[in-house]
Design a protein that fits this description.
heterodimer, A: FAD/NAD(P)-binding domain, 3 domains, 7-stranded mixed β-sheet, B: 86 residues, Non-ribosomal Peptide Synthetase Peptidyl Carrier Protein, Chain A, binds flavin-adenine dinucleotide
């Protein structure tokens, strides 16, 4: 008989969280910490969503999305998780750019970017300062008609090299292009490029293990291998979730599944205004990714001067669109030294990431798919040789992931790596107005994606759920504990 | 709680949220953002802390009332006047 992953689950909870990505985990943690009864459903066999890793024999561990996040993670982890987690966040030392326009190494903070833009790119200090101030002053409610391209053109007219320096990392971090609204760029840029890039010492597995322990401490009922099949709502009020054929009731449901899956797969269309559905249908998905994972032989090492994060490109000019094509000329290499996992066997690992289109990978016959994956691995090894001489001889394990891989493990339509484009945020925020008690807390709108964006979005939604639960308990039992 | 007690309470919350800031010279009439390094998550934390401590609900459309100490105290006074300070 198959194992019942819901053994012992209650028939009803205060809140059900669908999805154990960073947004869902954080939301569940805060609600559990406040004393609500929370059920967390994850369809995969481990928590973390895109914040994930995989292991191969010989002590090799590959991280999928541990390339770098902004300093704000420290504060968010301390407040919404534990200081133990916050204290494991460490800065990356060397961020490199190497392309036909420039080669440089930076600490990736405002001071260093200002220095580079003045000394290397020969810009006026005043222009650089005013650009940083403009980006920092951007707020979510500002005008959306100005594009990132317009913004650069007004500060640094004709300077494709400057655009490349300031944009390439953000394009990799969240798939945004020069056509996206400037405010999304400004908000991410100010977070990301002002105080350095950080990662988690101990690896993604270490982080997620700690989060799991904290969730249990806060009483969250965690169930893996439990895909939510349906969100049940009646009269525009959420009632619960069907999971593994069983109905479980809840006063609030938070979906960390993708926005599209939440609205079009999990929810009954009848529960939502047709105009809202139409708006949701027009929300564009962000791109997906390909990755190549490479492990050095145990006796081999990489010199730390190679850098931690390397934005490498052989393309003469910088076009955000061309970063998506199958003819790859630009890659981000993450170099992991033994210090990434101080308690594990010392291993050097390299992950190469590129943005990619789902359409370029879906629907291929098996042999063609396998052939393209091989080409992806071969061309990556070729490109790496420039930075890790004799890479082929020194690497003993190579494998690749494609948009199909990301789709398979998360259920995200088109294997989207960073949720939706900007307009998705409004739809995501509008879900509770359609169905009372239903919330969406997953990567949307460029600004609410990435590790930090997802965590913070989980907090924002937890706050709303708490307001709802408190308002309802007021109407039922008179508050006597003031 | 009196307006002065509410002010004390807000200072106490702020000192948790921004432990590295010196709050002694805070000017009540000037926006928090112009004196302290507060981001939008910090403001959300103030909202969540007020709910946790006093069961006060501040809807999103009212977040603007938390711009400065003076406007925060003015907003909270009618809502907290019947409460005892813990
Ligand atoms: C290749 C790659 C590299 C990246 N690099 C970085 C980086 O360096 N820094 C950074 O900050 N960010 C990075 N990101 C982005 C970051 O990983 C994501 O934005 C973030 O982890 C998303 O979190 P989330 O909460 O939106 O949910 P997700 O991680 O998308 O998780 C959603 C979860 O919901 C589950 N789920 C879906 N449907 C159901 C269902 N019906 N029932 C139950 N469970 C369900 C899924 O299995 C999944 O666990 C990267 C992403 C990719 C793909």
């Amino acid at each position: 008989m198959p194992r019942d992953f819901l053994t012992g689950a209650r028939d009803a909870y205060d809140v059900i969280v669908i999805g154990g990505g960073l947004g869902g985990l954080t939301c569940a943690n805060l609600l559990g910490r406040s004393g609500h009864r929370v059920l967390l459903l994850e369809q995969h066999y481990k928590l973390g969503g895109l914040a994930t890793w995989f292991k191969r024999p010989g002590g090799r561990i590959f991280d999928i999305s541990l390339h770098g996040f902004p300093v704000g993670m420290i504060k968010s982890c301390r407040r919404y998780w534990t200081s133990e987690i916050a204290d494991s966040i460490v800065p990356l030392r060397r961020i490199r750019f190497d392309n036909p326009m420039f080669s440089l190494t930076t600490t990736f903070d405002r001071v260093d970017f200002t220095r580079l833009l003045i000394d290397r790119f020969r810009l006026e200090r005043a222009a650089v300062e005013s650009f940083f101030e403009r980006a920092r002053g951007m707020r979510f409610y500002d005008d959306q008609s100005t594009t990132v391209g317009d913004l650069f053109e007004s500060f640094f007219p004709g300077r494709e090299d400057v655009v490349r320096l300031l944009m390439e990392p953000i394009t990799y971090a969240n798939g945004s292009t020069l056509e996206d609204p400037a405010i999304a760029y400004g908000i991410v840029f100010s977070n990301f490029m002002s105080k350095g890039v950080y990662i988690y010492e101990g690896g993604t597995d270490g982080l997620i293990a700690r989060m799991g322990r904290e969730l249990r401490r806060n009483g969250v009922d965690i169930r893996i291998r439990c895909p939510a099949e349906r969100i049940v709502a009646e009269g525009r009020r959420v009632r619960g979730v069907v999971v593994r054929g069983r109905f479980i009731g809840a006063r609030a449901v938070v979906s960390n599944a993708s926005l599209h899956a939440t609205l079009f797969r999990l929810l009954d269309r009848q529960q939502v205004d047709p105009a809202f559905l139409e708006e949701a249908e027009s929300v564009r998905l962000n791109n997906s990714s390909t990755q190549v994972y490479m492990a050095l032989k145990p006796e081999e090492s990489i010199d730390e001067s190679t850098g931690d994060l390397l934005f490498s490109s052989t393309a003469r000019s910088f076009r955000t669109e061309s970063l998506l094509g199958r003819d790859i000329t630009s890659r981000t290499f993450s170099f992991y030294y033994p210090r990434t996992r101080p308690h594990a066997p010392p291993r050097h690992v390299i992950v190469s990431s590129t943005n990619a289109r789902y359409e370029d990978w879906v629907g291929l016959p098996d042999d063609e798919y396998a052939r393209r994956k091989r080409i992806l691995m071969e061309t990556t090894l070729d490109a790496l040789d420039r930075y890790v001489p004799r890479a082929r001889d020194r690497i003993e394990h190579v494998e690749a992931a494609t948009p199909r891989t990301f789709e398979r493990y998360t259920g995200h339509p088109s294997g989207t790596s960073f949720g939706t484009k900007f307009e998705g945020l409004k739809v995501s925020r509008g879900v509770p107005e359609q169905v009372r008690g239903l919330y969406h807390a997953g990567s949307v709108g460029i600004i609410m994606s990435g590790w930090l964006g997802a965590i913070n979005y989980g907090v924002i939604v937890a706050n709303e759920v708490e307001n709802q639960l408190m308002a309802e308990s007021r109407t039922r039992v008179p508050a006597n504990d003031a | 709680m009196t307006a002065a007690e509410i002010r004390e309470e807000i200072l106490d919350i702020l000192s948790d949220i921004a432990p590295d800031e010196d709050l002694s010279g805070l000017e009540d009439g000037v926006a928090f953002r112009d004196q302290l390094e507060l981001d939008s998550m910090d403001f959300l934390d103030i909202v969540m802390e007020l709910r946790k401590r006093h069961r006060i609900q501040i809807p999103e459309e009212d977040y603007g009332a938390l711009a400065s100490m003076a406007s925060t105290v003015e907003y909270l006074t009618p809502r907290m006047k019947d409460m005892e300070r813990a």
